[in-house]
């Protein structure tokens, strides 16, 4: 880790810290960082390195008892890349992530804009509702979803039956059919994702200078044009960050799928996360699971790097 | 403009009804007796409200033990993350030194990893170190994500303290450590509280790590208890499950409302994942 590198004081003029003017090297940051660096080294860096190492071995259930495993080179990766289960999981993950991000971004943008047009009471009510949905632990909301969509007594099936469009839906088993399982999980994830998106965008939307919007209105622009041309333009940086964050989170969604459908029926909702988990902790092919995990992480690395760069850049201004 | 204000208000009302429905349904179901839960026409309010479901939930085997486990592990995680993290946060915000940027990249990158990327190697390492199924192992696993993110969030609070305050203390002859303990830490206290709440929520909500690492029911934490809430005789007990969900979610919702203003900043550092 880099923490060990001597914290030689730079005397850059942009340094905000008063100590930057010190004459002799100040080792204070080193002392301050050491405890955290040690903990992070042991609980984070070491496991990540070990994950990569394990992915080049045949670490399996047997290893858990005997401790024996051997180096197998890139075997795990070649097995993985020639496995149709992997490619199917990857495709599912990409498509489902796109659907969840699109859904939550569209609704989130709508709600964010809606919030700017509301009176005090309605605005407060909507904010509280958003925070409630946001605050629900996802284990609890997944259980609530199971109950909402329960075949037989679930309120969603009852409501659909009342519409009389789909026939008698009372005993429709949502987790038992791929399309329905995806639809229900999509609703669950979008339901929990919208509050963060809506509130973050709304915070940014309130910073948009009103003069521009008023000028456009005077020029006869419709509300939609004002939103599209002026508001969206100001929102662009926030939109970008929120979208990337949504992609990262939705790509890694696990609990909601695991607790609603368990990846079923017949692996139909088995995304990369579920596929990795089942490989590593149900089949106990830990080496193979590690390889999937490494590939999963690498696939997202570009986006993660972009996001971190952005966050650091905005952090430097502070 | 004014005449059309009913449109946004109506849209907002519809949105609120849809969005609040799952929460309302959870609470509503928690108070319903069994015959009302299992009726073909749903009752939108319990006709004969009962606390039976809550009694079932808290008198379930292991509820108290699992609650104790959760409180113990979460408290240890929060305290360690704050105590270890606050010094690092001070270093990363009040000092400039080489390697600072890379440390921050590491801190942020950890938040973006898929859950299994830490779960798999930790499982293997803890297996060799005999930490699987122990509370120490669980606390270490939680620190892996809560410590980096606590450092990041607290760093934000440190940055908000004006440098002039520090300079004034220095002029009065205070040394670095004196400034840290008597000036900076007291000023950053509200941020520490907010960060503790974020760390609490992250650890309290974890299901996957506890489910994978803890190998018998008496060692489970509340989320695992909640997810495995079934009645051995009658199958899934939805009333009990909803009552248990209410109890489990309540502290998180209360804390969310407290840190509401800081939520967005915490989220972007990966505090509470969706």
From TrEMBL, chain A:
It is found in: Cell membrane. It is a multi-pass membrane protein. The keyword Transmembrane helix applies. Residues 1-21 are annotated as: Disordered. It comes from the Bacteria. Its main location: membrane. Residues 1-13 have a biased composition (Polar residues). The keyword Protease does not apply. Belongs to the binding-protein-dependent transport system permease family. This is Sugar ABC transporter permease. It comes from Kineosporia mesophila.
From TrEMBL, chain B:
Residues 67-259 form the ABC transmembrane type-1 domain. Keywords: Cell membrane, Membrane, Transmembrane, Transmembrane helix, Transport. The chain crosses the membrane at residues 7-27, 71-90, 102-123, 135-158, 179-204, 238-259. It is a multi-pass membrane protein. InterPro entries: BP-dep_ABC_trans_perm, MetI-like, MetI-like_sf. Pfam families: BPD_transp_1. It is found in: Cell membrane. The keyword Acetylation does not apply. It comes from the Bacteria. The keyword Protein biosynthesis does not apply. Belongs to the binding-protein-dependent transport system permease family. This is Carbohydrate ABC transporter permease.
